[in-house]
């Protein structure tokens, strides 16, 4: 049985493929920014104050950031990822919550309306009382 002393040396493959330009999902936007900054996933997770697994979920489009992290995501990206450009009540309500870092439940308590009403507004459900629409419009119009 012959013995060979051969050592193979190769470069490690790059596991940092840059996302395609057409991919405008949050994960692709986060990965592009992270690679531009030269950060690892761990460094990016540390920036947000979360564990690496949570950040990977965002980057891999498995999870969306909790509302309290979305303002930081926008600041990192340099623009508001969740702003659809419309002036709809649904968009204004979501942008208000992102700016304040508050949940639907917290906004509902602030306005004395149910969390489900906030959910229906943000999901453009038409079955909302005029009174509740007025209360939300008043708040977000003065803030956004």
Protein model, in words:
The chain contains 8 helices and no strands. The longest helix has 14 residues, at 130-143. It is mostly helical and 144 residues long. Helix content is 56%, strand content 0%.
Question: Which keywords apply here?
Answer:
56% helix; 8 helices; 0% strand; mainly alpha; 434 Repressor (Amino-terminal Domain); 2 domains; 144 residues
Q: TL;DR of this structure?
A:
The protein has helices at residues 26-37, 41-48, 52-59, 67-77, 89-100, 104-111, 115-122, 130-143. It has 144 residues and is mainly α.
Report the portion of residues in β strands: under 5%
Number of helices: 8
Helix content estimate: 55-70%
Q: How many beta-strand runs?
A: 0
Termini Cα gap: 78 Å
CATH class of the largest domain, named: Mainly Alpha
Ordered list of secondary-structure elements with their pairings:
Layout: H1 26-37, H2 41-48, H3 52-59, H4 67-77, H5 89-100, H6 104-111, H7 115-122, H8 130-143
């Amino acid at each position: 049985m012959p013995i060979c002393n051969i050592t193979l040396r190769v470069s490690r493959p790059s596991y940092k493929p840059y996302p395609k330009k057409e991919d405008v999902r949050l994960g692709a936007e986060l990965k592009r920014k992270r690679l531009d900054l030269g950060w690892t996933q761990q460094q990016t997770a540390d920036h947000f104050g979360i564990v690496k697994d949570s950040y990977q979920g965002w980057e891999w489009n498995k999870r969306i950031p909790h509302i309290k992290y979305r303002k930081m995501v926008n600041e990192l990206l340099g623009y508001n990822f969740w702003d659809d450009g419309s002036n709809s009540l649904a968009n204004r309500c979501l942008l208000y919550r992102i700016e304040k870092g508050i949940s639907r439940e917290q906004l509902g308590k602030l306005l004395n309306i149910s969390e489900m009403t906030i959910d229906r507004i943000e999901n453009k459900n038409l079955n909302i009382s005029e009174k509740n629409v007025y209360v939300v419009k008043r708040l977000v119009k003065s803030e956004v």
